[in-house]
Amino acid sequence: MTASPTxxxxxxxxxxxxxxxxxxxxxxxxxxxxxxxxxxVPEVVQGNFIxxxxxxxxxxxxxxxxxxxxxxxxxxASLFHADRWDYAFSIQRQGVAPQNxxxxxxxxxxxxxxxxxxxxPSESEFAGRLIRPRATGKLPILQASEEDLKKFPATPAASSxxxxxxxxxxxxxxxxxxxx
Length: 180
What we know:
180 residues, alpha+beta, Beta-lactamase Inhibitory Protein, Chain:B, domain 1, 4 strands, 27% helix, 19% strand
């Protein structure tokens, strides 16, 4: 059995129409933002954020307990390096560059001996880095010239007599339907 010639031509016509419709539909994608079809990437925060202010509080000779109160629990406190605490922090957000900071605190016995690590941002600098830069379009001019102001009708001067206060209705409808 073979297909009839009218069936073949109608199938070809349908396929051509489908291709043409698909191409016309793609022309509207010029206005679509690049981020429209990206998958959602969850925010990943790992470790303890240590700010510049917290780092400045540390003083050589502080006890371990005091250091823990200032910086919090270390991310890594190894049994093999009992005199060393490592603080690491990383954050990855969609549309913002990843940020990584580390700080290492060394002890001699139970006393703070030295502090090593990256240049840490202040809390306000860090908060500013978390904001995704937004592209703003051309801002309108928010200043009117005298000619622009003359286009609007002048407002009548306020009268010295106070207008009468609005009166409340004397009766109100019932809150519940009347039972019969």
